[in-house]
Amino acid sequence: MDIGIRDLTEGGIFKQLTKLALPIMATSFVQMAYSLTDMAWVGRLGSEAVAAIGAVGILLWLTSSGAILSKVGAEVSIAQSIGAKKMNEARIYASHTSTIAFIISLLFGIILFFGADHIIAFFKLEASIAENACNYLRLLSTALPFVFLSLTFSGIYNATGRSTIPFYLTALGLVCNMILDPLFIFGIGFIPSMGIQGAAYATWISQAFVFCLFVWQMKQDNGVLNRFPYLIKPIYTYTLRIVQLGFPVAMMNLIFAFMNMYLARIASIYGGHIGVTSQTTGGQIEGITWNTSQGFSTALSAFVAQNYAANKMERAKRAYLYTILLMSSLGLFVSIAFVFFGETIFGVLVPQQEAKIAGGEYLAIVGISQIFMMLELTTQGMFNGVGRTLPPAIISISLNAARIPFALLLASQMGVVGVWWAISISSFLKGIIIPWWFSRVYKDISKSKKNKLDTILEQGGSLPKKADNS
Question: N or C: less crowded end of the chain, CB within 10 Å?
Answer without folding.
Answer: C
